[in-house]
What does this fold into?
Amino acid sequence: MVKEKAYAKINLFLNVVGKRVDGFHNLEMIMAPLKLHDEIRMKKILDKKEIKISSNIEITKNTHDNIVYKVAKFVLNEFEIKTGVDITIHKKIPMGAGLAGGSANAAAVLRGLNRLYKLNLSLEDMAKIGEKFGADIPFCIYNKLCIAKGKGEDLLFVNTKLKSKVILVYPDINVSTKQVFSKIDEENLIKIKINDMSQGVYNRNYELITRSLYNSLENVTFELYPKIKEIKHQLLDFGLKGVLMSGSGSTVFAIENNRQKIKQVKEVYEEKCTVILTRFK
It folds into this structure.
């Protein structure tokens, strides 16, 4: 049996540069892994070549639609593996939350299958495979603070670690990333330069980081789901620092170490939202 951790991530900076000819969008992002993670176990099925997936919560109605199934099927076929695999996922990362939970699971399965079947793939090899299935998977293979460009597959790693608590408020809204990107109005995109956030991250200047947080998808998601906008503004009214929606939503995070403010968020939101206190990985 092989065990892997699938780590969540947040976007400290997400700028949509424009649409590509392949229908995707070019992005500029700074992504940071969190200690919050799902747990995945994998073991061989020796008597037949099948893929079994079980989870503590339903991920997809049809197993074949699960990105984990697609990645596992590709690996078994690509490397002509004759046995099957039994995959168990214990979910802690909320789904449709902008925390890359699905991509993290797929990346963890790639790493796990590499170990289980001794495929001797490098992280770069696995990132290239992962890119076929999702733009965030290459990042989730490495789980390192980075600047990302292109669809999210062009990664420049930052050789430092951020040290702060991060509070996540997930309003139990499963946001469709595809829907959010389909509603982007390129003419109204505001171009924000990544320089200040890059400098803040490289120097671990938390004041500059919190001041430079940016996500150009916020306005689109806020229009679709006003509740997410309401949560962000309430967190700012509480005096929390570093408040931003992650990815295409629906999670709103705050980079905050003040215990009293963290306690206040828990008291206000725990009954109506999922509130998770974690740290940068």
